[in-house]
Structures are given as C-alpha cells and as structure tokens.
C-alpha cells in the first residue's frame, strides 16, 4: 500500500468555521454508542456525537495526541477523510480554564435555581451547560 492509504485526514468544522484539519493515524470520537476509534481505510460510516473529548493521533508527531472538546454533532468517514461537524469545538491548547470554571459555576447555580423552581426545561439546559463546562475543563486538564 502507498503511504497515503494509511493516513486519515481529520477535519472539524463548526458554525464558526474550520477548527481542525490534520493528517492522522487514528481519531477517537465520543459517539452516542461509546468511544469510537477510526483508522485509515475504515468503511464509510456516519455517526452522531455527544459532548466529550475527541483525540487525534497525528502522523507528524506520533507520540502526541491532540485533544479537542466537542459539544455534539456528527462524524462522516469516507475515502480516508473523517469529517466532524460539531456544534462547537475547542482544542485543549485554546481553552481558557478560568472561563470554563466560571461557566461551570454559572451552570451549577442555574441547576440549583431550576430545581428550586421545578423548571424542568431550565434544569435540562443548565445540566447540558454544566456537562459542556466540565468537558472543557477535563480536556484542558486532559483527564478524560
């Protein structure tokens, strides 16, 4: 096989534009059914993604994994291209930990308020906001 056939192109796009575009030996995504690892020459697949850490093993630095916090979306793999369309995505190196901690505190306060008011819609929104904030914190600290 030619070298190009053992390489996977990984790109992540959000409504704000391209967040990530690199060649990789493997990508691991938080699929709805659990963690899903994709390597070159994988069969075509489309899968929904949930809030979580996406990891990329790049070909130009085999000992390093890029970590990206994503907040839902989907991934399509075809012809050695893994295209991820996410609601939002942030590389670990770009996450502002103070901002993420503030978002976590706001979400915790919103959960408490929604629980006291028995507002189930607001409670769900606050729980999702907390999950997103925790994901960003964990990816920044690479604890996932």
What does this structure look like?
With 144 residues, the protein is of the alpha+beta class. The protein has two domains: 3-92, F0F1 ATP synthase delta/epsilon subunit, N-terminal (ATP Synthase, domain 1, Sandwich), CATH 2.60.15.10; 97-141. The chain is 30% helix and 45% strand. It has two helices and seven strands, in the order βββββββαα. The protein has helices at 97-117, 120-141, and strands at residues 8-14, 17-31, 34-39, 45-58, 65-78, 81-86, 89-91. The protein has a five-stranded mixed barrel. The termini are far apart. The mean pLDDT is 92.
In short:
The protein has two helices and seven strands. It has 144 residues and is an alpha+beta fold. It has a five-stranded mixed barrel.
Question: What does the secondary structure layout of this molecule look like, with pairings?
Answer:
Blueprint (H helix, E strand, L loop, with lengths): L7 E7 L2 E15 L2 E6 L5 E14 L6 E14 L2 E6 L2 E3 L5 H21 L2 H22 L3
Parallel strand pairs: 1-6
Antiparallel strand pairs: 1-2, 2-3, 2-4, 4-5, 5-6, 5-7
Helix pairs in contact: 1-2
Radius of gyration: 17 Å
Give the tally of β-strands: 7
| Overall outline | elongated
Strand order of the largest sheet: 1-2-4-5-6
CATH top-level class of the largest domain: Mainly Beta
**Major pleated sheet:** 5 strands, mixed, barrel
The count of helical stretches stands at 2
Q: What integer is the average pLDDT?
A: 92
InterPro entries: ATP_F1_dsu/esu_C_sf, ATP_synth_F1_dsu/esu, ATP_synth_F1_dsu/esu_N, ATP_synth_F1_esu_C, ATPsynth_dsu/esu_N
Family: Belongs to the ATPase epsilon chain family.
Protein name: ATP synthase epsilon chain
GO cellular component, one term: proton-transporting ATP synthase complex
């Amino acid at each position: 096989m030619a070298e190009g056939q053992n390489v996977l192109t990984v790109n992540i796009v959000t409504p704000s534009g391209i967040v990530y575009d690199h060649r990789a030996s493997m990508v691991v995504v938080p699929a709805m059914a659990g963690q899903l690892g994709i390597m070159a020459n994988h069969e075509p697949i489309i899968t929904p993604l949930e809030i979580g850490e996406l990891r990329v093993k790049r070909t130009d630095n085999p000992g390093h994994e890029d970590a990206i916090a994503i907040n839902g979306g989907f991934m399509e793999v075809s012809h050695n291209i893994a295209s991820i369309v996410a609601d939002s995505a942030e590389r670990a190196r770009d996450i502002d930990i103070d901002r993420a901690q503030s978002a976590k505190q706001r979400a915790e306060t919103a959960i408490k308020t929604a629980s006291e008011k028995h507002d189930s819609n607001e409670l769900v929104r606050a729980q999702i906001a907390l999950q997103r904030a925790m994901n960003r914190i964990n990816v920044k600290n690479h604890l996932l």
